[in-house]
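Researcher: Good morning. I'm working through a list of sequences from a screen, and I'd like to move beyond sequence-only analysis. For each chain I'm collecting a predicted structure so we can compare shapes side by side. This is the next one on the list. No need for commentary yet; just the structure.
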Amino acid sequence: MKKLLLLLIASAFLAPFKNVAMVTETDSTTIVDSVYLDSLLLQMAIDSANNSFTYQRGKVMLKNIAVINVPKGYKYLDSKQSQYVLSDLWGNPPDSSTLGMLFPENMTPFAEHPWAIEISYSDEGHIDDGDAADIDYDELLEEMKKDVEEANEARVKEGYPKVHLLGWASKPYYDKETKKLHWAKELKFDSTKENTLNYNIRALGRSGILVLNAIGNMQQFPEINKDIHKVISSVEFTDEQKYAKFDPGIDKVAAYGIGALVAGKVLAKVGFFALLLKFWKVIAIGAVSLFALLRKKIFGSKEKTEGTAQ
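Model: Good morning. Structure tokens for this chain:
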């Protein structure tokens, strides 16, 4: 299916330009018909890919670590299919840590402006939340802005665009009772016109963290934000993996607290480019650029030739 999809997409992308180059003395209606056929082939490929996905609803186990009760209005795509979407369709680096994705019920990976919530698990240890109440998040934001700007030179050398942290889209909030933390950042990539939304949810467990990242743009913030509490409450660790079950005698302890978790310094300690690649995934660059370009070339060409025919 993947090879067929790529073949049809390539055919649909190139055909309008072949027709324009080769058909010089033909009625413009012929070009219109050909472009229409190409766009139809592209839509058939997209429909075929969409129909191949198997979404789940209700209660879903996440690798015996946690459970998600898929919120109303959403659908869950399992780990294997999510890796296919993120890497093969959206052009992100492969990442086997993905546990799945939540899509809005009426959204598919091929939407013009798709957004979804990726779910993964980090086993870096039990986080002591004792510093949560003492964090000055405005001060932390200024530190994060400096860190992002200082890292841009290395990003450019590796072929990535510069990124700028503009501010909080939603200020960090930690619920000490549920052991869940959430915040959202507004970012600007030099390669994109629209500002990027990075909405983060973290659930603290016995020896690791559930990581939920909303992938979208700032125009989608109101839609994502209105359901965020429903999404936060949908995930829970299994009984044996809950925060309260932490045993200092046998469980690993993380070398950082809530502040470093928000700032992303934990990933930076593992390796700068681990942070870079994780961050790159958040902007869903393949979906935004590839399919938007295809639509523009195919449907834009169709509209232009139809205007000529009149």
